[in-house]
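tl;dr need the bound structure. longer version: we got a ligand (phosphoenolpyruvate) that a collaborator sent over and nobodys looked at where it sits. i said id run it. heres the input, straight from their email, havent touched it
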Amino acid sequence: MEATNATTMKEVVQQKWGKRPLIIAGPCSAETEEQVLQTATELQKTGKVDIMRAGIWKPRTRPGSFEGIGTKGLPWLQQAKKITGMPVAVEVATAKQVEDALHFDVDVAWIGARTTVNPFSVQEIADALRGVDIPVLIKNPINPDLELWLGAVERIAKAGIKQIGLIHRGFSSYGNTEYRNAPMWHLAIEMKRRYPELMIINDPSHICGRRDILQDVAQKAIDLDFDGLIIESHIDPDNAWSDAKQQITPARLGEMLDNITWRKEDS
Ligand code: PEP
Ligand code: MN
């Protein structure tokens, strides 16, 4: 949908936000202007994506990996939004990142799993967002600690943010397992029970860490009554600068979403 003067981007986000299922998709990382714009155009062509995601600052586990294109990538997202009318979401981890994201009209902010574990960081983000009131999605912490997840929600809510959503992205464990991050579905279900008024969406990309089981995990989330999905999508997944193994092309994403059995009330 094209944002016109009559429909401001804020209204677009509000309409999209309440929608079920909410579909957020886009690359793990913004890499080049061309990649961002082409991804945006192809995602829009599927007709199934509500909000585009792209990591600008990447919290990599080890130094030396690509740590994100940085603020330079924010005008690319602005341009993607102009071309497609899709609101954009980025991960923020510091007050400066919040400030930069807001300066470039980012519509939705999300807090990453490595940030949710740190109350100082979450508080810093909450303070930077105070009075701004853009929608904020809070990923579960990397470790299965429900209290940390709850604490992050409370800090953001206390800053006056009205539209808060949860992202279930699984929990890390040591060694090779079937999943990159164990889903531990019961923890997400417990969050749903404690905060029935908050939207909760599932991130099959970071749970799976690979493409072949993505659809099964997405289906399970829908069967468990999650409100939507956030899925990583890249125009050339194998050559992505981060999380290459789990990304899928926009066309494949479209097919996958077509093959999911949605709840009757949402279709
Ligand atoms: C991401 O969404 O690309 C990301 C870094 O995710 P997480 O915080 O879940 O690891
Ligand atoms: Mn990623």
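gonna send this back to them w/ a short note. The domain at 9-259 is CATH 3.20.20.70 (TIM Barrel).
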